[in-house]
C-alpha cells in the first residue's frame, strides 16, 4: 500500500463537512463517434469516394498557392506560402499512398480467394514487398529517377575518397 493509498489524516478539532464525496462519480467521457474504434476500421477507398470533392478542392488550393507564390514579393510571406504548399502536396500524396495500399491489399485478398477456390496455396507478401509495390504505384517514374540520382551521388562520393591514381585510371577508360 503506497503513501497515496492511505486514508487522509484530518484534525479532529475542525468540523467535518456533511457533503464529502467519498466515491467521486466517473467523469462522463464524450467522444466523437467518427473517431472511435467502435465504428470499425476506416476505409480509405470509401473515404475517397465520399469526399472526392475535398481532393479536388485541395488540388485547386495547391494551384492557387503556386500562383500566390509567383506573385508574392515579400520573402517571409513567400516562405510561409511555400511551406503551406509543401504540406498540402504531402497530404495529397499520403492520401494517394494510403488509397493505393488499400487497393493492393484488396487485390491480394481477391487473388488469394480465387487461388483457394482453385485449390492452390494463397500468396502472402511481406510488408517490405507491399511497401515497394505501393511506392511503385504511387510515385511511378519519380521513384526510379530518385534512385538513379542517389546511386550517382553515392558513386561520386566513392570516387572522391578513392586515391588519385585509381580515379585517373577510371577516367581513361
Report the major sheet: none
What is the approximate shape?
extended
Total DSSP helices: 6
Percent in strands: under 5%
Structural class: mainly alpha
Tell me the span between the first and last alpha carbons: 80 Å
- The radius of gyration computed from the alpha-carbon positions, rounded to a whole number of angstroms, is 30 Å
Unreliable stretches: none
User: Average pLDDT across residues?
Assistant: 85
Helix content: 55-70%
Q: From N to C, what is the helix and strand string?
A: HHHHHH
- The count of β-strands is 0
Structure characterization notes:
Component of the 90S pre-ribosome involved in the maturation of rRNAs. Required for early cleavages of the pre-RNAs in the 40S ribosomal subunit maturation pathway. It comes from Entamoeba dispar (strain ATCC PRA-260 / SAW760). The protein is extended, with a radius of gyration of 30 Å. The protein has a domain at 43-125. It is 66% helix and 0% strand. It is built from 6 helices and no strands. The termini are far apart.
Amino acid at each position: 500500500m503506497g503513501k497515496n493509498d492511505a486514508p487522509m489524516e484530518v484534525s479532529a478539532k475542525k468540523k467535518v463537512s456533511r457533503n464529502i464525496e467519498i466515491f467521486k462519480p466517473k467523469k462522463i467521457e464524450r467522444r466523437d463517434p467518427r473517431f472511435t474504434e467502435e465504428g470499425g476500421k476506416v476505409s480509405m477507398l470509401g473515404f475517397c469516394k465520399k469526399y472526392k470533392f475535398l481532393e479536388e478542392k485541395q488540388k485547386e488550393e495547391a494551384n492557387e498557392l503556386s500562383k500566390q507564390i509567383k506573385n508574392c514579393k515579400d520573402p517571409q510571406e513567400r516562405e510561409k506560402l511555400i511551406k503551406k504548399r509543401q504540406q498540402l502536396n504531402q497530404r495529397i500524396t499520403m492520401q494517394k499512398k494510403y488509397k493505393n495500399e488499400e487497393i493492393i491489399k484488396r487485390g491480394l485478398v481477391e487473388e488469394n480467394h480465387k487461388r483457394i477456390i482453385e485449390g492452390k496455396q494463397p500468396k502472402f507478401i511481406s510488408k517490405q514487398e507491399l511497401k515497394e509495390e505501393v511506392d511503385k504505384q504511387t510515385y511511378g517514374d519519380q521513384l526510379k529517377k530518385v534512385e538513379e540520382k542517389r546511386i550517382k551521388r553515392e558513386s561520386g562520393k566513392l570516387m572522391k575518397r578513392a586515391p588519385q591514381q585509381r580515379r585517373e585510371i577510371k577516367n581513361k577508360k
